[in-house]
Input
Amino acid sequence: MVFASQETPAPRFYGRRSGRPLRPGRKAAVAVRLPERLLAVPAAGTRIDPPMLFATPVAEVWLEIGFGSGEHLLGRADARPDVGFIGCEPWLDGTAALLARAPASLLPRLRVLPDDARPLLPALADASIDRLFVLFPDPWPKRRHHRRRLIQPEMLREVVRILRPGGEMLFASDHAGYVRWALALATAEPGLRWCARRPQDWREPPPGGIATRYQQKAEARGERCIFLRFERV
Output
């Protein structure tokens, strides 16, 4: 299942796209709900104006890259009825879980790209995203696999371009090596400012945060989760 434009070569994707066969309820949710909520990457050179993606007016647009099973995205959407949400998740089981669990009242404020987010970023209009979440992405811990990590200099340049001034990116991980990697690259990007002022700012989730399934598993193992918040300057 590939939704990236055929005119622009997409970055190679290395993660999982599916697991076990979908349960009937989730399979039905994908068949019925995904066509209406689907966000496809447009042809090269075409830009998306995110607020126009939603049937009802929204005050802000938030983007989550790799929403897993959707716990965080749905919790945020429930708390902020004035915000439109774009969710990207190449793992089909996660997309199915999100669509099956989403209340019908929330669907008009939800658009889903069931694919790698990297081809989407260049298609978003400048200064069009208010918040961006990258929560517990695959750390690709082996050195030879570091190039597979989502956080890369070119990706952060796109983040700076699409975030509005004052907009924020939140990165979270329980993998210390990936945290150091993300912090080094993001602080080297002149368009981003690390918002931490005290240890609690990275040791605790920011206000309004909803724990993802991966965060819950990490904490159950006794792992420390780190939260890095950056502002577009």
